[in-house]
Amino acid sequence: MTPAASNAARGVLRPLTALGARITVEGGRLHIRGATVPPHLLDTLRAHRGAVLEYLAAPPTYGCGRCGRYAFAEAGVTCYWCRPARPSTACHHDHER
Ligand SMILES: [Zn+2]
Q1: How confident is the model over 31-62, as pLDDT tens digits?
Q2: Is 42 found in the same domain as 14?
Q3: Which helix (H) or strand (E) holds 32?
Q4: Distance CA 73, CA 94 (A)
Q5: CA 83 to ligand 1 center in whole angstroms
Q6: Centre of ligand 1 from the C-alpha of residue 63, in Å
Q7: Strand bridging mode 71-72 / 62-63
Q8: Whole-model pTM?
Q9: CA of 80 to the centre of ligand 1 (A)
């Protein structure tokens, strides 16, 4: 699935899981348990049903944008080791030597 589709699916699921709901796929249908979901969120879920089903069936992972060694749920994330060192981190490393 495309990063845009997985981002859309995550955006739909986030408020549901924040309510304590668990969304599962059973027999190609979405099941919601654990919380009462407001109608407007159900409408959003239905509107993105295809992307959500695909996302839940196989949550995609994306490699670090620079080294590709570490996987993230979102595309375009740079891992900790590839991020530019913050001044405090650089200072810490200097003192370790
Ligand atoms: Zn990296």
Answers
A1: 999 999 999 999 999 999 999 999 998 888 88
A2: yes
A3: strand 29-33
A4: 33
A5: 7
A6: 8
A7: antiparallel
A8: 0.65
A9: 7
